[in-house]
Amino acid sequence: MHRHRRWLQIIGALLALGIYAGSWHVVGIDLRKLVEPQAARRAQEIFTAFLTPEILVPERGAQRVEAPMRVPCESGNTPEAVGVGEGPRLFLPPCASPGARIRIRGEGFRPGSELVLRWVFAPSPQLPLGGELLAGRTRTDAAGRFELDVEVRPLLAQEGGARLQAEARWEGRWQVSPALTRTMELTLQTIFLALMATTLATVVAAPLSFLAARNITARGPAGTAVYYITRTTFNVVRSIEPLVVAAIFATWVGFGPFAGVLALTVATVVNLGKLFSEVIETIDPGPVEAITATGANSLQVIRYAVIPQITLPFLAFIIYHWDINIRISTVVGFVGGGGIGYQLKLWIDQTDYHKAGTAVWAIIAVVSAMDYASARLREAIR
Amino acid sequence: MPLIVDRLTKIYPDGTRALHEVSFTVDDGEFVAIIGLSGAGKSTLLRCINRLIEPTSGRVIWNGIDITAASPRELRRIRRQIGMIFQQFNLVKRATVLTNVLTGRLGYMNPWLSLLGYFPPSEVQRAMQALERVGLADLADKRADELSGGQQQRVGIARALMQEPRLLLADEPVASLDPVLAHSILRYIEELNRKDGVTVLCSLHFLDLVHRYATRVIGLKDGIKVFDGRPDEIDDRRFKEIYGQEAERIGG
Amino acid sequence: MAAERRPPQGFAIIPGLAYYAMGLRTLAGIWLGVSLTLIGLALWRGHLWLWISVGLWWIGTGYDVRRRFKGRRPRLWPAALVALIAVYGVGWEVTEIQPLAPFERFDKMRPYLIALTQPDLLTYPTERQIYRIPVEVPCTHPPAPRETRGEARIWLSADCAQAGDPLTLQGEGLPAGLSLELWWVNPIGERQRILQEGRPLSLQADASGRFRTAFLAPRAVPLGFEPPPGQSQTHFLELHAVRVIGGPRPSEALLEVAEKMGETVAIALLATTFAVWIAAPLSFLAARNLMGGSLPARAIYYAMRGFFNIVRSVEPLIFGIVFVVWVGLGSFAGMLALMVHSIAALGKLFSEVIEHIDPGPVEALTATGANRLQVVRYAVVPQVVPEFVSFAVYRWDINVRMSTIIGFVGGGGIGFRLSEWIRLSAYRQVATAVIGIALVVMALDYVSAQVRRRIV
């Protein structure tokens, strides 16, 4: 007997070992992948960015003026500078000789901003995509003026001239980043997505749950059949993740939050239906008996003996599922179901990790808050 | 090598004064019963002696060592010589009886080896002897929660035996048991006291048990020592001092 | 009601203040919360009707306050109704609910429902006999019927056609009951199934080996290989006589689903196992009863708690996209994602188990002179292990569900193929995968429930 057990234990251990070895192989665990230089750098980049989410960004402004300049001049010598542009004005000669140093002036730019001068080339046989060449950098003075000596590079002669562009750039006041605004809007959408789904699901699940309650439905062959069919449906649909349903629904009703609402509704109906029916099955039969004894009909019995008993537990489960639905609705967007998930995935795919960080922190805040609120609410109504 | 308790005071963070300047000396081999109402400070007194509860002021000196001033390391060396048994037995319910008894030896063992769950055969043998002494050797492989209350308390005694204690603190050891079982448990403690010469401090609820087993009685009321003497010295007046004016004396 | 204080009448102008003055603190708090929510919603969406509902909420609660002042029964439902309408109205708008869309676009869903009744499970090895009938496209001469002779005689109503032309095909001398498929092959070898009402046309030879069918010539002229005006190119109509040889075999989709479900379960198993071994020691650091006392211990306790709570609130799928960027596509990324989330979820549950242990044994072992680690090993660990195992099994169950979708973001398992099949509208394969998932998840659900019932 004892020896028999020992053998069973050895076989069990070997089996477990085999299963783990197989799993290890199938999953392709390779811890080096975590630390190899490139991967580690990506990870570091992501996590650093997540820790510094984009919340405030400086207001950026730029002014641009550009004007063409021929090189070399037909006449051979460089003429006087002429002004171009309204508002900010750029003074430059219309043509110049290669190798000459010419003085470029500007006025009417934003005072104290960074100023970049560059040559902009049109596409040509030598430069099929066009091009840019830095001509010089300076800052505008307190009156918004600048002066800079620029060399007319040989490349300009080769191309027959270029457009000279003056760009003044500055960073202004810090303001709420567009990513944060977008995140907040989508977070609210996420909350409402969960709210709508939970509400719709409650409306559907509450009556259905009576069909899945043994003590209410399972009377006679027809009732028993209804009971088992409802039960089984709940169990089967419960095993399909809402995201799978959402992916299918997105092709049905189109991408967007409505697909998410429907998918979450389906998932919540079956979960709540099961929980509700269990609540109904465990009610105290005493009041039912008492009210039936007064000569009340079945609807009256349900209204006065059943419903008062189930209201609070139902409410607790509904709140709990709103909480769960908020979690799911943060990712339902990955498959086209609306909410913040879609934008988060987009930002990560675009390697906009700071913006993705904003979304992740918003998710953490909302989910934690709901988690806490739901726990407190459920405690309060118990 | 007596146990000296010197002006021991304990005030809990919520302001409850559980002990107030309690002083007494216990000689080797005494069987001291501590009596008093619930909340009189009996448990606090016992736990202040091995510093399961940190006293607010006062000293406890045993074997010439100041327990109240001991470093954590010294404290553990002292504790391993002080056995303790509890009202709720305090066994690990999901562990076997044998393991529960062996844990009494942890203070003597190599800390790292013991973390692996290894006990040398000599210790296992010692544990079996302890179990034999309390008449439970055949239940060694049972889970602790499969045992009755009286059996569990005997496991508790066996665990204390493993420590080869010089002093035994017993906190209401029989309060959760039937009267018949209570005597059986107290007889084991008495045997420890008589045969092995272990000093016993035991809080008790029933006066008849005090008369039957104790050589000395300390009475506590609201954290203050109100009586210290032989059990037969407790007359009606003393009884009312300890238990209050409304109390009626039952038994004993 | 008698306990309510009666503040000055003017307080009714700000109902929340009146509630507060009446001693109804909770109601005052709720009033403030609802008011701020409604104003926030109105600011966000900017609709006039939302501002109106803010006003109505104010009036409704003011009405309730007046009733209370006069000692009548409170009546809050009109105000509550206004607030609910406002909130759900915004919800309706924000989540873009289109109640008719599911019906209007039901044609997109129908194939899934049909496919669920006929998932791609089995294939029958077949032998095909192919009859090729050349067809000129487009017609450069008046069309004439064309007959092909072999073992069977097959007539096509026209020897030339243009996309959309009706054609009739009939034949005789085929083995009775043989199933037939029609394919169209263009000059560069692209073949397509002939469709009828959007579905592949399939027919059977009757008992005497005859068949007859009508269909439309498909659009098949290859892009960039159009014939010059006035000329035609030769396409072929293929009649495949399909004979089943041998018994049913599992289909490719079924084999793939089976393999990927194995991978899915393996991902969940490893993620859970690693998470348990990491979360178990960490959870001791997050247990209030063990980390009391000294300041550093408290600090560690709060740090671990915070870590668990933050990580727990991030769905595994989000970790999935991060790990896919980190270690690349595949099951390993999915496993890591599930593991990290599980560490936090289990860590929190484990630490709560530790906080609810019986303190008696801890006291008893401390009294024997055991050190802190020994106390944990002998008084705490034996008490918590069964609960830990139970939670771990439960977590495995959850992780199997999660790992069915972790592939949606590239984390391996069935989800990856499933998302592809959904994108390609491979309805029958989707059905196979969904049924596979349902079976495995329900089976593991049952096993996990049984195991947990035994343990605790």
TrEMBL record, chain A:
Query: Which segments constitute the ABC transmembrane type-1 domain?
Result: 187-374
Q: Where, by residue number, does the polypeptide cross the bilayer?
A: 191-213, 243-267, 301-319, 326-344, 356-373
Gene3D superfamilies named among the record's database cross-references: MetI-like
Coiled-coil regions listed in the entry: none
- PROSITE patterns the UniProt entry points to: ABC_TM1
Picking any one GO molecular function of the record gives: ABC-type phosphonate transporter activity
Name the family: Belongs to the binding-protein-dependent transport system permease family.
Q: What protein am I looking at?
A: Phosphate-import permease protein PhnE
What's the source species for this entry?
Candidatus Thermoflexus japonica
> What's the source species' lineage?
Bacteria, Bacillati, Chloroflexota, Thermoflexia, Thermoflexales
The gene is: phnE_2
Automatic annotation (TrEMBL), chain B:
Q: Where is the ABC transporter domain?
A: 3-247
- PROSITE patterns (alphabetical): ABC_TRANSPORTER_1 (PS00211), ABC_TRANSPORTER_2 (PS50893)
Query: Which SMART domains does the entry mention?
Result: AAA
Any GO molecular function: ABC-type phosphonate transporter activity
Q: What keywords does the record list, in alphabetical order? A: ATP-binding, Cell membrane, Hydrolase, Membrane, Nucleotide-binding, Translocase, Transport
Q: Does the keyword Amino-acid biosynthesis apply?
A: no
Kindly indicate where the leader peptide sits in this chain: none
Q: Which GO terms describe its cellular component?
A: membrane
State its Enzyme Commission number(s): 3.6.3.27
* Organism domain of life: Bacteria
Q: Which NCBIfam families match?
A: ABC_phnC
What is this protein's name? Phosphate-import ATP-binding protein PhnC
Q: What's the source species for this entry?
A: Candidatus Thermoflexus japonica
Give the source lineage, highest ranks first: Bacteria, Bacillati, Chloroflexota, Thermoflexia, Thermoflexales
TrEMBL record, chain C:
Q: Subcellular localization, per the record? A: Cell membrane
Where does it mainly reside?
membrane
Gene3D superfamilies xrefs: MetI-like
Q: Which residues form a coiled coil?
A: none
Keywords of this entry:
Cell membrane, Membrane, Transmembrane, Transmembrane helix, Transport
GO molecular-function terms, A-Z: ABC-type phosphonate transporter activity
Alphabetical GO CC annotations of the entry are:
plasma membrane
PROSITE patterns noted in UniProt: ABC_TM1
InterPro entries, A to Z: MetI-like, MetI-like_sf, PhnE/PtxC
Locate the transmembrane regions by residue number: 12-42, 48-65, 265-287, 317-340, 398-418, 430-447
A Pfam family of the record is BPD_transp_1
Q: Where is the ABC transmembrane type-1 domain?
A: 261-448
Give the membrane topology: Multi-pass membrane protein
Query: Per its UniProt entry, which superkingdom is the organism in?
Result: Bacteria
- Which NCBIfam families does the protein's record reference? PhnE
Question: What family does the database annotate?
Answer: Belongs to the binding-protein-dependent transport system permease family.
The name this protein carries in UniProt is: Phosphate-import permease protein PhnE
Species for this entry: Candidatus Thermoflexus japonica
User: Species lineage, top-down?
Assistant: Bacteria, Bacillati, Chloroflexota, Thermoflexia, Thermoflexales
